[in-house]
Every structure is written in C-alpha cells, then in structure tokens.
Amino acid sequence: MPGRVAFVGAGPGAADLITVRGARLLGEADVVLADALVAPALREQAPQAEWIAVGKRGYAESTRQARINAMLVDCAQRHPLVVRLKGGDPSIFGRLEEELAALAANGIACEVVPGITSALAAAAATRRPLTRRGVGRSVLLATAMTRDGAPPRSRRADTEVFYMASRQIDALRSRLLADGWPAATPVSIVSHIGWPLQEVSDHVLGDDLSGASGRHAGGPTLVIVGTGATAVDLGRAGVPIDGHPSGAAGPAP
Amino acid sequence: MPGRVAFVGAGPGAADLITVRGARLLGEADVVLADALVAPALREQAPQAEWIAVGKRGYAESTRQARINAMLVDCAQRHPLVVRLKGGDPSIFGRLEEELAALAANGIACEVVPGITSALAAAAATRRPLTRRGVGRSVLLATAMTRDGAPPRSRRADTEVFYMASRQIDALRSRLLADGWPAATPVSIVSHIGWPLQEVSDHVLGDDLSGASGRHAGGPTLVIVGTGATAVDLGRAGVPIDGHPSGAAGPAP
User: Does residue A111 contact residue B241 with C-beta atoms inside 8 Å?
Assistant: First the structure.
C-alpha cells in the first residue's frame, strides 16, 4: 500500500509566504523533496522529515525530471506522506504535469496545495497591483524565452509578467517593442523576490536595459510590463516600514 | 501617530489557504475589515480583534468603495494595526489601488501580504496545471465582462482564465468563438472554489453552455479555457482522497 504525495507551493523566498495548509503538511511529512529555490528556513517546519534537495544543476533538464519522477515514486512506495515542495506555485511553470503523470502511472494518490506565485509576491512587495480599475483589466503570465523565429504578436494584456527573465532582458525588450508596445511603456524588474537580495528597478521600454541585466543577474527575475508596472502614488506613506521598503521583503514587526 | 494597515490576501474559500504571514497578522490585529467572500473560520484566527464585515451588497460600487476607504483611514487613526482582509489575492482584481491611495493621502503606512488567487486554487483543486511543457507556455487572467462593442481579438494565451464569470458564461463563450478559439477547445468551469459547494464541470467551447450557467449560478465562478482546462490522466490515482476528490476542497487528513 503506497503512501501519498502532496505537492506544496512554497511561495517565493520568505518562508512565511507558504500557506497554513502547506506548513501543516510539512510538519507531517516523512520525506520532503525540495526544489533548490525554496526558503531554507522551511526545513525547520519539518524537523521530523528526511529532507532531500532536488533540482541541483549539472544534469540536462530531461534527465533531472526523470530522476525526480523516479525518486517521488520510490519515496511514496516506502513512506506514508511525501511532500514535494516547489518554489512559487506548482501550477505555474512548475513542471507539475510530468510528476502527476508519473505518480498516476504507479497508482499513487496525490493532492496539490497552491502557493504564492512570484508575480503575486512581486506585486505585493512593491505595492503595485497587477490590475487597476478601468485601465488594467487583464494580466498575462508568460516566460521570457521565445521560440526562435516566432513572429511578432500584438500586446496580449494590460499587464504582462515574464518569468525566468534573468538572461533574457535585452531580447525581451526588443521583442516587446516589435510587438507594438510603445517606448514609453513602464517596465518594472524584480529579482530575488522575498529574499534579502531583493532588487527592484524601474524603466521604460525605450531605455537601454543592459545595465539592468547586470543588476538583476544570477537570480530569479520577473519583468513586469504595462499598467501593473506603474507605482501607486504612496505620498508620505511610501516610507519604509522597519527597513522593509516593500512591506514584504521580510517578516513584519 | 496613526497605526498601519496590512492588506492580507485570504485566498479563496478554505481558511487554511491563507499564508502563514497573513494568519500571524490576523492574530495581532486590533481591527479586521473583511470582505464578504473570506472564509468565516478565519475569524477564529483573530479572537482579539474587532471584526467588521464590509462589502455588503445594497450600495452602488463607487459608494461602497468610498465607504471602505473612509473606514480604513478612520480605523488606522484609532488603532495600531488594522488588517484589511480580501478574498483571493489583493493585487488581482482586488481594488487595491484605490485603498492604497486613500491611505497614502492620509499619511498611513501600509504593507501588502499576497494571497492565493482563485485561478491557482482551481488549478490545484482540479490537479490541472495552468502551464504545460511545450504546449502551455502562457496564462491570461482576465474578467469575463467586456466593454460593449469591443472588437473581436485573437487568442491571447495558451490558457485563459476568466474571473467573475457567473452570469457571463454564454456571452463569454460567444466572444471566445468570435475571437478564433476552435469549437473543440476544452473549457473547465469551477465555482465556489475551496468551499463545500465547490463544483467543477467540463465542456468544449462548441457546447451549449446554458445548463452550466444554471449549475454554477450564484457563486464566484472561474472559466478556464485552453490547455490548462484539460485533465492530466490520473489513471488509478484519480480516486478521491478521503472524500476530497480535488485534493483541496478541504483540509487533508
């Protein structure tokens, strides 16, 4: 009789952005298979569990995914509760489908606990809602990478958020201009969301963004374009709260 | 010296989908201004707080928003910590901008704690990832309502999720067909996500959806169209987990 697997979204960076349900499952798990990008402090929520870091670099993506699938099945066959802890939300760029299918093929039951995807965390941290009354009625979540030779396309939403953009900022900028976004379109770049290294920079699409590429290198990076990239006028209230100018870079006092 | 306001995303339905940070702030709040659609059980997280339900019907939207803005400012001027509890995520269709601006105009500091927006909760509950390797590389979040006379537009993402769709299902179907989505496109309709009344129905865009409109009437409803609406083949593992076929309709065992 195999155990079950709970996919749990860890949210980005800060350990206290996991859901209450996710934290409870961590505390009950026999084994945790954790992505590289989850907050190290989450391990303290599961002192009873065997903690296995997966997602190490050095393998081709396909090899890596096949190894994770096999480990999940193996762990569930030996333990009552396996938590598969993923950065952000499992359903958004989380490769969830492959792992669900591998478990299903082996008759292993599973559930999915959602997490805070980084677009939502960035919006909260910068206090810039992704939707705005009347002018920001749609949000696109996409990856920064494009297939070679993809034709230009029109704007797809009032706010577009590009994941995994760290090494794609210049190429993305060129593509958005070709797609018809005006040079004056606001662009907000957010890297290391929820981590101490969190960095936010503001631009317009017509700017030379090569400096921003260096500044945001080496970490998980979002590029937010359009209505949702503009700051709400916070006036006097825009002052930092206990050293966390974003209000979400760390625990509140 | 006024207090501060923490906007907290309650997630949809189930009380344990709030973040750990959000739950902690509830436990510290002096006053909670809560939307109608947050889980009643969250009130138990804030026994020390004055709990004020806002968002009652019977006012025009603009009157209602102005009243909430005024209450927020008034509460923050009299108490150290006010929590503004919103269903889902404050940054996605949460009218956050107006409330941030009202506080800023009065010099009141604030922070934003993200929450699980209902698209993520629906994906988890139905175990249908919104992105899929190779074929589902973008997700659009939009409202079902359209401006009168809006021209047809092309498909905007591999998966499109429409919020506030309860009374718009037929009109939305017509518009999507006019926009060029094929009649065979999968459509998943999810209402009352995370509540005991949760309901999921599967269709294709060419179907007569008037029956679905009745079935999902009267509750918060999402319409998911495209790649993310298709079920992952869960085979034998598709069996219900302790009466929660979705894996997220209630607390796990």
Answer: yes
